[in-house]
Specification:
The structure holds two protein chains of two kinds.
Chain A lengths: L1 H16 L1 H27 L6 H7 L2 H22 L1 H6 L5 H22 L1 H10 L9 H26 L4 H23 L10 H9 L2 H9 L5 H27 L2
Chain B lengths: L6 E12 L2 E12 L3 E5 L6 H9 L6 E6 L2 E2 L4 H5 L2 E4 L11 H11 L4 H14 L15 H13 L5 E5 L7 H13 L5 E5 L3 H7 L2 E6 L2 E6 L1 H8 L3 E8 L5 H8 L4 E5 L8 E7 L6 H10 L3 E8 L3 H8 L26
Parallel strand pairs in B: 3-8, 3-9, 6-7, 7-8
Antiparallel strand pairs in B: 1-2, 1-4, 4-5, 9-10, 11-13, 11-14, 12-13
Helix pairs in contact in B: 3-4, 8-11
Chain lengths: 253, 341
């Protein structure tokens, strides 16, 4: 496992000296800033029951849809295309170490990006006239949700990247899988065909997997371990498939 | 580092199929410690595939490969520690600097930090990269990139170094530098090079393996191969005198000496005559003494040996079973037959 840290530190170093990292971070903050400002604008016009933080997390899917593909599509697809994956895999490093190293670096960066949005809430706290109304509970819940769901989303991105040589295909595949996960399950839960008695276990499963409902639960302070379990096992499964994907491509090249 | 065994690479009955195409067809060879072996073959002969299997990157369909006594298929990490590899076209990440890249690769190959620092200095000196150590890899010229690739391959001082076309695309100066680098590794590490540049292979390698259609069609030192495949020496003379009596004089000199070709005499009266003999000893002095004594005038005498290119072309003629030029191919015609499934 010692090569894991070498690969991780190299990936982080690569992120730090690459200009695109900073460009992506700035653009992300611009988008999130607009969203937050829009929410505050909305709040200033009419009274609301929930804290602005809760609404802020309800649009989590906007940054997820555009950031996760951008963060992860480069990881394997670029190395495969350049040929450096071959030189990497001829060193005494296992494919598991490579996959985990790249996953960890992407996840760390994802968390850093979201962490920087804490600044918004801090600014709000600084300038709000009455901070009693600003509940920090939804903040904790919301960021916990981001941390846990990030595991799954980034793992899906890494999986898509291992499947192809082209970064564009990896990015689009990630986007589609995330869309299917976040929007598709909600859509599937509303299908009338599931109301059949025979399919009721399936209906309960699909109902409980609706990700926007998870967001609500987390921001309302309910940390359901079943939902956490879903994300963690989904992450592990995706990473396992990534490792298998890299090795399968070697076997069948 | 543990003692390097005498036989560093042992390949037996290696087979690799890409679907219906058999890229490597029952290949067997060994490489001793400190030897420099050249893999020659037309494009698509299976050289790169063989090298990838040796490094453990590609699994074979059957057969075994042992590196330093350990099988590659069942002990990939142990064998990868003994191998330094430079693939074709030398892929390098574009964003790193030379010293950073060498550090990263050295850590991946499990070199301890203090040793790695010293070794990077050594290797930069050896490959003449000191001036370029802080340059970004993507901005280096091709020759410098090849040097970085070679530096990275020799970094951990592995027992086996495998280089796929190391001198491709380099200018003549750079080729000489790379050639000297490779020659300096002789005796310490086993080196396998594949190349199309035949004079390179002829100069650097102790032994040559000619591969065609996934099989070894000839192997041995360049001199041995020349003798085995051609078995004769050629002399070219510019001669003036009676051509009719020449064969008799040649026969008295050396029984196998005969005229292979002769041209019309030019304005000076001299003609170009090509002689062929199976004798290995140099007949130049004898010719220079005997022919003028018999009344001929000689203006120039040269000995030509078949080059490795001739050996290569003869050995890799497009038919499955031809090993030597005089053997009949069982599926013989000029077209390459379809690979056997």
């Amino acid at each position: 496992m010692r090569h894991y840290f070498t690969i991780l530190s190299q990936e982080i170093r690569a992120l730090l000296y690459n200009a695109s990292t900073y460009v992506a971070a700035v653009l992300f903050l611009v988008v999130m800033g607009f969203i937050f400002a829009g929410i505050l604008d909305d709040y200033s016009k009419a009274p609301h029951e929930t804290a602005p933080a809760a609404v802020f997390f309800q649009v989590f899917w906007i940054p997820v849809f555009f950031m996760v593909p951008l963060l992860t599509m480069k990881s394997f697809a670029e190395e495969r295309r350049l040929g450096t994956l071959e030189t990497l895999l001829t060193t005494p490093v296992t494919t598991a170490e490579v996959v985990l190293g790249k996953f960890s670096a992407a996840y760390l960066f994802y968390m850093l990006l979201w962490g920087s949005t804490l600044g918004f809430h801090y600014v709000l706290r600084l300038y709000a006239r009455d901070i009693r109304y600003l509940d920090s509970g939804p903040l904790v819940g919301g960021y916990l949700f981001i941390a846990v769901s990030g595991l799954l989303f980034i793992a899906i991105g890494i999986l898509a990247s291992t499947l192809t040589r082209s970064q564009a295909v990896a990015g689009i595949l990630t986007f589609t899988l995330l869309l299917g996960l976040i929007g598709g399950i909600t859509y599937a839960s509303e299908l009338a065909v599931l109301n059949n008695d025979l399919l009721s276990p399936l209906k309960t499963a699909v109902d409980s997997l609706r990700i926007p409902v998870h967001v609500e639960d987390f921001t309302n302070g309910i940390v359901d371990t079943r939902q956490v379990f879903f994300y963690v096992t989904g992450c592990i499964l995706s990473l396992l498939f990534s490792i298998l994907g890299v090795e399968a491509k070697m076997l069948n090249s | 580092m543990a003692e390097i065994p005498d036989i560093t690479i042992e390949v037996s009955n290696l087979v690799k199929n890409y679907g219906p195409l058999t890229a490597v067809n029952n290949l067997s060879f060994t490489v001793k410690r400190g030897e420099i072996v050249g893999l020659l073959g037309p494009n698509g002969a299976g050289k790169s595939t063989t090298m990838r299997i040796l490094t453990g990157y590609l699994p074979a369909n059957s057969g075994t490969v042992h590196i330093c006594g350990q099988p590659v298929a069942s002990h990939p990490e142990a064998t990868k520690r003994h191998v330094g590899y430079m693939p074709e076209n030398n892929p390098l990440p574009e964003d790193m600097r030379v010293s950073e890249y060498l550090w990263f690769r050295g850590r991946l190959k499990e070199m301890p930090r203090a040793r790695l620092r010293a070794r990077i200095e050594e290797v930069l000196e050896l490959c003449d990269l000191k001036r370029n150590r802080h340059r970004i890899l993507g901005r280096l010229s091709k020759g410098n990139k090849q040097r970085v690739g070679i530096a990275e391959a020799i970094l951990a001082e592995p027992a086996v170094i495998i280089m796929d076309e190391p001198t491709i695309g380099l200018d003549p100066h750079q080729i000489i530098i790379v050639r000297n680098l490779i020659a300096s590794l002789r005796g310490r590490m086993s080196v396998i090079i594949s190349s199309h540049i035949l004079p390179e292979i002829e100069e650097t390698c102790d032994r040559v393996l000619i591969i065609n259609g996934g099989r070894i069609v000839a192997q041995g030192s360049p001199a041995d191969l020349r003798h085995e495949i051609f078995g004769h020496t050629t002399y070219r003379l510019e001669l003036a005198g009676d051509p009719v009596g020449l064969p008799i004089h040649l026969a008295t000199l050396e029984p196998t000496l005969r005229i292979a070709a002769q041209e019309e005499p030019n304005a000076d009266g001299f003609r170009l005559v090509t002689l062929m003999t199976e004798a290995e000893a140099d007949l130049g002095e004898k010719l220079l003494q005997a022919l003028p004594a018999a009344g001929y005038r000689i203006r120039s005498l040269g000995r030509t040996q078949p080059s490795l290119e001739d050996v290569f072309l003869a050995a890799t003629r497009r038919s499955w079973d031809a090993r030597l030029p005089d053997k009949q191919a069982t599926e013989g015609d000029a077209r390459a037959p379809l690979p056997k499934v």
